[in-house]
Amino acid sequence: MSTRERERERDQYWYVWMENQLCCLNITQLGKGSCSRPEFQTMFDNSDGVLDLPIKMGCISVGSKLYMIGGEREKWITPDDDDDDGYKLAITEIDFLPNLDVYALDFDCRGCASIRACKNGGDDDIPRMLVPKFSPLVINLDEKIYVLARRPSCKYDKPLELPVFEVFDPLLESWRALPHPPWTDPAQFKIGSDYMHHHFVWAHKIVCCTIAGFYIFDTRMEKWEFTEKRLSPIPMISCAAAEFNGFLVAMPWDLQQLSIYQLDSDGIPKSYRVLHELYSVFNPPFVRYHFQGFLTHLGDDVDGGGHKMCLLYAGVDHCNTWYARVAIFRVILSCNDAGDLYPHAYLETVEVYDLEKFDGLSCWIDSAFVT
After folding, report:
1. d(CA 352, CA 71)
2. What is the C-alpha separation between 157 and 279, in angstroms, rounded?
3. Is the peptide bond before 179 cis (omega within 30 degrees of 0)?
4. DSSP secondary structure, 326-342, as one string
5. Structure pTM?
């Protein structure tokens, strides 16, 4: 069987983690008229709270296994407890504690899923990190797993425990501390200045977008670089970013659209164009500040040409109903009259899904990825 035939046979799935539920969608079957529309399927449901699982975990696939890393747990503080500064509280408050464990999703012979903690590693498991991580950014790059802690939703100015940044090498089966990002240095901390709008991977570099500029981590040199280049008048990258041949497809901050950015030699966006060809995916728009985007590569299109991508765009409409729109499109680069590469997008299909039946209370996706 040829490589192209194998690629056509291998199905790909969106896995979506929503607080206490893991769902998946077969995106390979989207838009195929020969079969019925694929639906989101519940793979694991902890709505009853039987397992004490953290929230806001970072999810990642390694080979054929799925892992959930970091996150936070709620902790109620009563007036009899001291807060972090030693003061007695006047009322009961809620705090969050970071999670140290790594969880694995297993399937039995019947296809039933279960989640367990991987505390000791071994047997293809990932051991505990060196220190717990709030709402971590988790990246699989060059067969290694990079985990970067973000600040908690409660007590945002609380110092982060070092190391803030770790890498797991499966060959060594261990975690190793990496240089922490400059914005996490308590001496340089300023509320709001370190807010990470989004990140993307460019070659062997991880680029983090903040209001202050771009922080770039070179995974080969293992060092951080900072550039004060601002995106203005180029819109700030917010979510759903995927790099392709020197271009970056992404959703701008507070804008419900996809734009394509051309990257300079350092991986920094230098120009952009709105992909108006995908207007129907975002129309009608969701309520402002109540939408998310997740974008992934699906590989080269062996039939139609170009590079295929899939967008998961979720949000609350003006009737307060939580929906997801899943779109598959192709990006093709052609040369204009000046000989410069010019990107076009071609929408193949878009499907709308009602997510209320899964988790109508939070209306928020903690993590989404394709495997």
Report:
1. 29
2. 39
3. no
4. EEEEEEEEEE-TTS-EE
5. 0.84
- Cβ(25)–Cβ(11) under 8 Å? no
Q: Which residue has the higher pLDDT, 234 or 204?
A: 204
pLDDT at site 266: 81
pLDDT surpassing 70 at residue 279: yes
Q: Domain segments of the chain: what residues?
A: 3-370
Q: Are strands 93-98 and 13-18 parallel, antiparallel or unpaired?
A: unpaired
- Give the separation between CA 78 and CA 216, rounded to whole angstroms: 42
* Record: fold of 3-370: Neuraminidase (2.120.10)
DSSP symbol at 159: P
Identify the top-confidence range among 55-64, 87-96, 245-254: 245-254
Task: Compute the mean pLDDT over every residue in the chain, rounded to the nearest whole number.
Answer: 82
Tell me: cis bond preceding 170? Omega within 30 of 0 counts.
Answer: no
pLDDT for residue 3 is more than 50: no
Pairing of strands 322-335, 341-354: antiparallel
Range 211-218 contact pairs with CB under 8 angstroms and sequence separation of 24 or more: 211/236, 212/183, 214/268, 215/181, 215/182, 215/183, 216/266, 216/267, 217/165, 217/178, 217/181
